[in-house]
Amino acid sequence: MAVQLRGIIGYPVTPFADGAGIDTAALTTVIDRLVEAGVHAIAPLGSTGELAYLSEAEFDTVVDTSIAAVAGRLPVLVGVSDLTTATTVRRARYAARAGADAVMVAPVSYWKLSEREITTHYQAVSDAVDIDIVAYNNPATSGVDMSPELLVGMFQDIEHVTMVKESTGDLTRMLRIAKLSDGHLPFFNGSNPLVLDALRAGAAGWCTAAPNLRAQPCLDLYTTITAGELDKAQALYDDLKPLLEFIVAGGLPTTVKAGLELLGVPAGAPRRPLLPLDEAGRAELSRLLAL
Description:
Keywords: Lyase. The protein has about 290 residues and is α/β, with parallel strands linked by helices.
């Protein structure tokens, strides 16, 4: 069951209710805004969605709420990563049964993982589901750095590993993936400040939380690059870059939730140990959003 992901993949935050649990009404609003803005797919439970801080019951609630909110309008890519293979497999199965089009897996590590362990981890997820798997390389948060050679090898050898999200911010890795796979392995840019160079280099799309705050410039950037309008793309990127750098430096859940609040969309605070954006940060973010 293959899904052709391309373009701007929007990553929603996960709003929390007062006290505990998921604010499903707020999550639905956040997703509706992304869909109506024109993103090309929705990806709940990424780093922006605070997946690492959720219980299994909360994970299930976010999956069900997200798929119901999208209501078949766009593909849904669900993050399912966990320290253990067993929980990653459980999450992947749950997402697949709920109607996700693909799952995203980063091998999260406490102990350093060997390539054999990483490959076995992905093989277990592939054996458990019949939907596509995006191999997510983000060593800054997962503690595991997968080489282009390993990623292409899994694409060739593991049935459902069909795409890569590369978030190291190293353009040479993306070029290496393209070369090693003869252009057959689609790769997505997960490093917000690198987006212009990544799309120019042939990235299939941009995985980003930025459309929560400024959707149209993100969409226009993708459209102009695919149309070969590179001067226009450069101007759009130059305008977006300060915001992209700010939300990455301040932590995506913290900054995007603050930005949504400034825009009049209640999304709550991040879950501790993360803290809400401080007043100086809110003032700078307000300026970047031209409020």
